[in-house]
Amino acid sequence: MMTSAVDRRPTTAPSSVPPPVPPVRTPPRRLKDRLAGAGFLAPAVLFVAALLLTPFAVTMYRSFFSDGRVSGFTWFTNYGLFLSDPVLAKSIENTLMWVVGTVALPLVLGLGIAVMTNGSGWSRVARLLVVLPYAISGSAVAVVWNFILTTDGAANQALQSLGLGSFAQGWLLEWPGNTLVMIVANTWQSTGVAVILFLVGLQTIPPETLEAASLDGADGLRKFWYVVMPQLRTVSVIVVGSSLVNGLKSFDLIWVLTQGGPGRNSETLAVSMYQETFLALRPGAGAAVAVVLTVIVLLASWLYLRRQLTPKGA
To answer: For residue 199, how many other CB atoms are within 10 A of its CB?
Structure first.
């Protein structure tokens, strides 16, 4: 008598996972919606073009013409002055010094003051003393520092009274010392906004991250460098970007203190633009300086922001 074979195949339980839901496709925007969006943006675009792009285009157009009463088209002759005119070469050198000084000093001082005054009992007084110069105009700051830096000014008188008369000098009369002291004066004014921004950044850091870093053994400088600084990256980008632009277009402080002298040795590109256009009566050359300065500002800002704001690994 034959026995029936037992089916030992494993039984498959019915799947409880629901079938995947196909993604919902949003219908493409209709032409009417796109035209409506363009209509809302058009006034702002036209306003910006009228106030920014049109003057820049006119300035670029003027830079290709000579400075005679009957202006002739001279191609890139005005731009060639940057290679042949020693004044403009010195102006580029001074501009680079201003960029380095006006970026590095407010960044370091602003961060240091913000860290030292964050949460301390005298922080409000310290913030007021540091931020107050930022509320003063550049011309007023120049008048204050002119009182300090002239030959018979407060700085030399203080050195004389301390028996350090050998260190007294004409602070605004020799290059590169005059450029360096003007960078210091600019830093005195611009550090306030850096302090405010860094204080805002420090107060938005979650305290849990600092507590976790302390539990992991990070303390002091290591915690500041590896925990605090990465969370201040966005604020640092704003501080450096604004300082970069302000350093490249500095004019009022330089003009009031030295007027680019002595002998046009302390000029930056912004001052050279004014000198060439209104004092030397060479509007074509002044327009070329303005175009070069604008391109440098835009290019430097774009390169820096692109590098800092691009996600790592992208």
So the answer is: 21
Please give the full DSSP string across 111-166, using - where no structure is assigned.
HHHHHHHTT-TTHHHHHHHHHGGGGS-HHHHHHHHHHHHSTTSHHHHHHHHTT-GG
Element spanning 201, H or E: helix 177-203
Calpha distance 153→46 (Å, rounded) = 51
Give dist(CA 5, CA 8) in Å, integer: 9
Q: Model-level pTM?
A: 0.79
Lowest mean pLDDT among 26-40, 239-253, 275-289, 300-314: 300-314
Residue-wise pLDDT tens digits, 242-260: 888 888 888 989 999 998 8
- HSE-CB at 277 with a 13 A cutoff on CA atoms is 15
Q: For residue range 113-152, what is the model confidence (pLDDT) as tens digits?
A: 888 888 766 667 777 788 888 888 888 999 999 999 988 8
CB atoms within 10 A of CB 159: 15
The Cα 182–Cα 47 span in angstroms is 36
